[in-house]
Amino acid sequence: MKVRIKWVEEVSFLAQSESGHAVLMDGPPEGGGRNLGPRPMEMLLMGMAGCSSYDVVHILKKGRADIRDCVLEVDAERATTDPKVFTKIHLHFIVTGKALKTEAVERAIKLSAEKYCSASIMLGQVVAITHDFSVIEAD
């Protein structure tokens, strides 16, 4: 897997993926940026959340669950001094479907966290990651 990062101006960088997608990353105005895109640490958190969400939806669908929606709310804390690494990450899944079994959702989240999500497993080596979830019955 390869990515390319190109400096644009000030503290703006264009990230390009091997799969042909691009994302502009930028800093806050007080740091010389224009707030045109997410910060690199936000990208890291979004990548982990996307990886985990993908796993949970895939596992539930593979188990023939009637899943209609999955929202992942992530709350992370960072150290106050440099390097401002993540110190805690909490993932709250909100899964909507018809007659979803709580046990199936819990199992999907556990499999993602412990076996499939490379990003969260890697980050979990250095930061405490916790999970919980809510199941909503679809209309």
UniProtKB/TrEMBL annotation:
It comes from the Bacteria. SUPFAM superfamilies: OsmC-like (SSF82784). Gene3D superfamilies: 2.20.25.10, 3.30.300.20. InterPro entries: KH_dom-like_a/b, OsmC/Ohr_fam, OsmC/Ohrsf. This is OsmC family protein. It comes from Deefgea salmonis. The lineage of its organism: Bacteria, Pseudomonadati, Pseudomonadota, Betaproteobacteria, Neisseriales.
